[in-house]
Each structure stands twice: as structure tokens, then as C-alpha cells.
Design brief:
Two copies of one chain form a homodimer.
Chain A: H1 2-12, H2 20-39, H3 44-53, E1 62-63, E2 72-73, H4 75-87, E3 94-95, H5 103-116, H6 123-144, H7 147-151, H8 155-171, H9 176-187, E4 189-191, H10 200-221, H11 237-241, H12 247-252, E5 265-266, H13 277-293, E6 300-307, H14 309-315, H15 323-326, H16 330-340, H17 350-353, H18 356-362, E7 365-369, E8 378-384, E9 391-395, H19 408-436
Parallel strand pairs in A: 6-7
Antiparallel strand pairs in A: 1-2, 3-5, 6-8, 8-9
Chain lengths: ~450, ~450
């Protein structure tokens, strides 16, 4: 029944029944996604795909975010390219219960298709479809978590196809039967192996998931049949791709009666593995403290970090050679926090990773695993030349956690940091204001005026 | 190593090193595929997809087989639509060891891309790429068979993506590293749940697999990275989607040193589940016998079939209501063999299934499971009014098995039966001759002249 219950729920979802904190979470998710997409638009994973597939685009309808402001492709390709770009810096949002990056597959498909239609799509209609897709995606993800991820599936895209299908079905006002068939066509395209992590194909996953879901909804809209038990059947999605199947319970927990998953969505302040975030957060704080005391980075004698054991297991790279390796280095994370007081994509550029002052400071950083610490907690001790007392800092919960969420101001700063190098200051400002105002937009297709 | 060994093998494969019986098997596979594709071109699963996705095609380069002879779309969509059409009647080829339908995903991608290029593709080059793709597909399929299928994966498409990627990589002359990355991008798109059997989505699978593989090769050609251990890694294709992983042994058994899988490819004489084939085969024989003796079908009093138990389990439907249900009816299979002396798609049309004389004869057919029979064996007894001795027939191996393969003449008959209703007699004849002559074609793109 899970597939049909989910389809019925999506069809019945109304903007008015979504609480304001949930629509606000949707706006924040969309806003963060646009910034990440613009920020990733010039990455080779995005540009190679554009080069390889340019000849296959139909008449252009949908904007490539972060292009020179006038590049449109068809909706199917916009979904792919924007989906890739949004994930390529590992800087997009995280549904912490499942580590799904939920907005990428759903928003990439939804925005591309909204732009391709002959009729306006209001902000509230867009938000309703976005919420429908993300709830579907996260609930089916929770139903198979953690086994599905442990066995090797990239859960962002395997669930993302389904989320995208639900969102586009909602946008197209498909009925419950069509929506169920769309879920089926999406579910049969199980895209994303974790083996691809560390390669371009990791960010291909949410892009392809966006296409899978968009394609599924378009086929179902014309009467294509799949299965109305695609998720829960004996040989359906959950049982084939996982040994855990809590679909009934998870689908029964959909909002408003149950819990809204999008309200649990977290935003990364730093473009690297989440386990490094407490260290960067703490070092950014120490940077501010040093500035206040007039201490230069060159005066640092030694840095010691006590961290959760997973930090060294996942990000123990001492001498990263480029930006990609630096994302897996807690030592680099500490260094940029201390040296620059920030951790944005700019601090992960190859030139910065290999800069002499960065390399020098990085060599002074020591880290020790302490199993008594939580994953989002750390302790830092910085010895400064000529000072007897070290600077110490305890980060209880890193910024970006649910306990210390990114404020709208921090999200804006993150957006601006990513967009200015691509769009320039003026266009970034306009785009930021437009995206924050999503709820009030009369026609989301007008995103072309600002991005 | 399996991924890299496979990639190296594909790069090194030369037409001259492929034995003549293998290139001939490739021609037969291609020929049969073209006929099935034309035959399925007007099915709703194909036409709905065309309607839903027409707006997303780039500049047309590649022929939709069975269209009015002049409909081209871009290669990506030709791969999808031709892939769907080729499988929609369940009439395409079968690699019996794995029940993969191997040609659909591979040929659909390969032909579409060959047509889209600015340079000729000779028959031998086309055949070499086709063999590379089908060998890759069947070897990785054997490596995970039967567990992968048992758990619920539609093995035709899950392996088909990989086969299509290898074939297109070969066509594009990618190097070994690029080919390995193409295999990776294809492997991460694990498309096809058996839950979709009985719906349009079943035939969507080989179509989407063709697109997955084509996309993978095109991305890899431009430098997109995935994993060079995509098939064998701990969280790679085989281990994630199966509990069996015999990759090393299977990849080591590639031809010419090992066994050519395409030479094991079988062709269905009848457009229905393979377990019904012995009964239709036997009844076609009895039809001929009755004709010789001047006995009309109306004189039949009773028909008794002894069959393998699986026949009744899978195809026990006594009163099928339409063509789709009739495919799962051993009773209908026997009826059309006796009445028409053939089992082509025409005998599975709804009107025939509900025709009064068909319904009447069908009600006279009895079947009994006999565990001592093989799946491709049956015994038939037909009592005729006014005759004391019944007509009996024992089918040892059904036509279309490896023991009694479809002859070129039977393949031609099958091709013609499928193509005439779509192309008319003259175009069918030209197309048939062109396809049989594949090996001698100077430029496969010229398929446009005949199809």
C-alpha cells in the first residue's frame, strides 16, 4: 500500500496545510540549493557533461544556473546539469537522519520543468511540490536506512529519483494513479553506487536522479504504466535494494499528521565532510579571538585538536595535494579556519591548498581521537609563541547542526561567497533577494530575469 | 581488476579475431532485433514514450525503426524508443544461461550513435562493437546469476547498461581508461526491477539501459571520471546488486580464448513466454499433419498436452481476455498452433484472442503437469471426431532452443511477419536483405535508406 498511500498524500497536499516553519525550511533549502548550483556550475563535472551532451538538448526552455545568464537547455538537460552542479562541492544540504542531500534531485527536476511549461508556477505551488518531493524522498530513505546505504547505495540519488518524480507529478497535477505509476518508473531506476565517491560520477548521481524522476512523471502523465506497488512489493524498490523495509511506518508518518522531514534539513557552513565542521567552526572562533588579541597566525606554535574517532578515519589526510584531497583533511580544515577565519570553496582551491603559509601552518596541527566526544563536538588548544596560556575552545555542537542551525544571515553569506565569483556582485544581490522571496513570486519561471 | 580487464579486452578486440560463426551470430542477433523493433514500434509503450518526450529531442540524426520511414530523433531518444520497441512483445533474443535479452540495450545504443556520427561505420566495425557489448553484458550477467535475478533485478537492463557502454565506447574508439570509466558510469545506473513485469515499464528497461550506456560512453569520451573498479569493488556493481560475484572467472573467459556468449544466443519463434514454445511448436506440426490429412480444426474433439510443471505455474491462464493475458496461456498457445499453424504477434491480437472459433477450440484443450518432462519438451494428443486413433506428437526440444535453433529461413519469416504490417511488403523485403547483408555494408548509417 505504501506507494499508493504516498501518491494519495502527494495529490492531496495543499500549501495551506503546510506549517509556516516548513515552507520556510523549503525556502531555505531552495535558497541554499541555488547558491550551491551556481557555485558548482563551472566545475569540470558540470562542464564536461555539458560539452558531452550539448547536441542532445531539445529546444531551450530552462536556465543553467550560473551560466553567463543566458544559457538555456531543455528541461531534461537542465535537470541533469543543475543537479550535478549543486552537489559537486559536497556543499549542499543534508537530511541528517539519512545523510540524503535532499534538495538536489528534487529542485533540479522541478525548477527545470516549471520553466518549461506554458503556464505560470507560483511560489506557493512550487514550494508545495518541493515539499512533496523532499518528504517522499526522505521518508523512503528512512524506510531503508541504514542498511541501504551500508550495502553501497548512494542514498541521495536512489531516493532522489522518487522524490523528483513526486515533485514533478505534483507540479503537473497528476492524479493519484498517475503519480503512483510515476513513482514506479522512478523506483525502477536505482541510480548511485558509493564506489563512485571521489569521482565526477558522485555528483552525476543527483543530476541523473533528477532526470529519472522528471522522465518518470512525464511518462506517467501520458499513461505509461509501471506498478502501483513499486516501493513495497516483494520484488519492489525497498526489498530489492535493502534488507530493511519500514515503508509502512515511514509513509504513515507523513505531515501534517506526522513529522515534516524538510524541517530537519541541515545546511553545511563548510564545503567538506561534515565531521570536519566542528574543527573549522572552532578554528574560525579562535581566529576571531586571535584577531581581537592582535595575534598573527605566524605566531602559532602548535595546535591540538581532540576529535571524534570518525574524524581521523574519514579525514585523516595530513598533506593533501589538491582541493579534493583537502576536503578529506581535518588538518586543512583547522588551518583555513585559523588562517582565514572561514571555510568557503575559495579555501579549497588547489592554489590555496598548496600555498606556503597554508602548508606551514597545516604541519603544526595535531589531532587525537577521543571516543568520549560526539561527532559534532571537539576541543581545541592553540599554543602561541611568547604566551604561557594557550587559547582553548570547546565546540559543543558545530554550526550547521540542528542544535546550532545556519541562520538566514549565514546562509546569505554562503550564497554570496559562492555566487559572486560566478555572477558578480550586482547579479548576486538580485538573485539572493529573488530566492529569499520565493514564497511571494507570482511565477517561478521568472527566475530567468535574475539568474 | 575485472573492470580494467574488460576494458582492455574491448579496446583490443579486432574483427579479424572474431570467428565467423560468431560474426554470423551477431548478424542474426541484429537481424532479429531489427524485426522485433519494427514489430514493437506501434505498441503503446513505445508511442506513449515518443509522445511524452518528443519535445526533448535534439537535432534529429537517428532513425526510429518502424516509423513511417522518415522519423528521426537524436541518438539519445532513438536509443530509448528503439530499445523499448524491441522488447515490448517479449519476442527478442535470449541468452539462455542468464535469460538476458542481450541485443536490445546494446544495438539500440550502438545503432543510434553510429547514425549520429560524422563518419561512416562499416558493417565489420559495427559488428565488432556489437559483439564487444553483448559479450560484456552476458559475462557480467553470468557473474551474478542467478542471485541477482532472483532478488528482483531485471538482468536484461542491469547488465544492458554496461553492454551498451562497452559497445559505444568501442564505436567511439575510446582508450582503455575511458572505457573503464564508461563502464563505471553505466554500472552506477542500476535500472530494472522485476516488479515492473506486466507493465509498460518492463520494455522501458532495455530502452533506458541503452540510454544509460550511451550517456556513459559519451561522458567518458570527454574525460568524465567514475571508478576503474566499478564492477568488482566492495561497494561496486556486483557486490551491491548481488550476493554472488564470479566476475574474475567470467571476465577471464572472454573470447577468443574463452567462450563467445553471443554464439549461445537463442531466438524466439513465438512472442510469448518460452515455456509455451514446445506446445506451440508441436501444435504447428499437428496443424500441418491435419492439413495433409484434410482434417479441419472444427473436427477436433479434445486436445491433451503433457507439459513441464512450470508451464502451468507460469502460463496456466485458461480464458485469457486480451493479447497480454494470452501470452500467459498455454491453452491459447496450443489453440493458435492448431488453428493457424503459426504463432506470430498477429495471433496475439485482442481480436484473435476473443474470436469465437479461437475461444471454442481453446476450451477443448487440457494440460497436465509431468515432472519427468524437460522445460523445452512436451507430448500432445489430439482426438479428432470420427477417427479412432488420435494424432500424437512428441516435441523433444522446441524450435528456438540451442538444440533446434531457428534457421535463417525461420528468422526471415519472423522478420517478415513483424515488418509487413508496419512497412509493407516491398520495404520489408529491402530491409530484410540489407540487414542480412550487415557484414558487407560500407556504412551502417545507410540503414536510413531502407528502414
Amino acid at each position: 500500500m505504501a506507494t499508493q498511500v504516498l501518491a494519495n498524500w502527494a495529490v492531496g497536499l495543499k500549501y495551506a496545510s503546510i506549517p509556516q516553519e516548513v515552507t520556510q525550511a523549503a525556502v531555505r533549502s531552495f535558497y541554499n540549493w541555488v547558491g550551491c548550483t551556481v557555485g558548482g556550475s563551472a566545475h569540470p563535472a558540470t562542464t564536461i557533461a555539458r560539452t558531452a551532451l550539448a547536441r542532445f538538448s531539445g529546444p531551450p526552455t530552462s536556465r543553467l544556473l550560473g551560466s553567463d545568464g543566458s544559457v538555456d537547455v531543455d528541461a531534461m538537460h537542465a535537470a541533469l546539469f543543475n543537479g550535478i552542479a549543486s552537489h559537486v562541492h559536497d556543499y549542499d544540504d543534508t537530511h541528517l537522519d539519512t545523510i540524503i542531500h535532499p534538495t538536489g534531485p528534487v529542485a533540479a527536476a522541478l525548477l527545470a520543468m516549471a520553466e518549461a511549461r506554458d503556464q505560470p508556477c507560483s511560489g506557493p505551488d512550487f514550494i508545495t511540490a518541493l515539499v512533496a518531493g523532499i518528504e517522499a524522498e526522505c521518508k523512503v530513505g528512512k524506510a531503508v536506512w541504514p542498511d541501504h546505504y551500508d550495502v553501497g547505495w548512494h542514498i541521495t540519488s536512489t531516493t532522489g529519483s522518487i522524490g523528483a518524480a513526486v515533485a514533478v507529478s505534483k507540479l503537473l497535477s497528476l492524479n493519484a494513479s498517475q503519480t503512483a505509476h510515476a513513482i514506479g518508473v522512478a523506483a525502477t531506476q536505482v541510480t548511485g553506487l558509493r564506489e563512485m565517491f571521489g569521482s565526477h560520477t558522485k555528483s552525476f548521481h543527483p543530476g541523473r536522479a533528477a532526470q529519472n524522476g522528471l522522465l518518470a512523471a512525464l511518462l506517467a502523465a501520458e499513461g505509461y504504466t509501471s506498478s502501483e506497488q513499486a516501493l513495497e512489493a516483494k520484488r519492489g524498490w525497498a526489498n530489492v535494494a535493502s534488507t530493511i523495509n519500514n515503508l509502512d511506518a515511514e509513509i504513515a508518518s507523513l505531515g501534517p499528521a506526522g513529522r515534516w522531514e524538510i524541517a530537519q534539513n541541515a545546511f553545511k557552513p563548510f564545503p567538506c565532510g561534515i565531521v570536519v565542521h566542528p574543527i573549522i567552526d572552532g578554528c574560525v572562533g579562535i581566529h576571531a579571538e586571535m584577531k581581537k588579541q592582535g595575534i598573527a597566525a605566524a605566531q602559532i606554535e602548535e595546535v591540538h585538536a581532540d576529535v571524534h574517532p570518525l574524524v581521523l578515519e574519514l579525514t585523516g589526510k595530513k598533506t593533501p595535494k589538491d582541493g579534493l584531497e583537502a576536503k578529506f583533511s581535518v588538518y586543512h580544515g583547522a588551518t583555513i579556519g585559523l588562517l582565514f577565519g572561514k571555510g568557503t570553496p575559495a579555501q579549497y582551491e588547489d592554489a590555496v591548498v598548496n600555498d606556503a603559509s597554508v602548508v606551514a601552518l597545516r604541519s603544526l596541527i595535531k589531532a587525537t581521537a577521543d571516543p568520549s566526544l560526539r561527532a559534532d563536538e571537539c576541543r581545541l588548544t592553540v599554543k602561541v609563541k611568547g604566551q604561557s596560556a594557550p587559547i582553548v575552545k570547546h565546540v559543543d555542537h558545530a554550526v550547521g547542526s540542528l542544535e546550532v542551525p545556519m541562520t538566514d544571515a549565514l546562509l546569505t553569506e554562503k550564497f554570496v561567497d559562492q555566487c559572486i565569483p560566478v555572477l558578480g556582485e550586482k547579479r548576486t544581490e538580485t538573485a539572493s533577494a529573488w530566492c529569499w522571496g520565493l514564497e511571494k513570486q507570482a511565477d517561478v519561471r521568472r527566475i530567468k530575469d535574475v539568474l
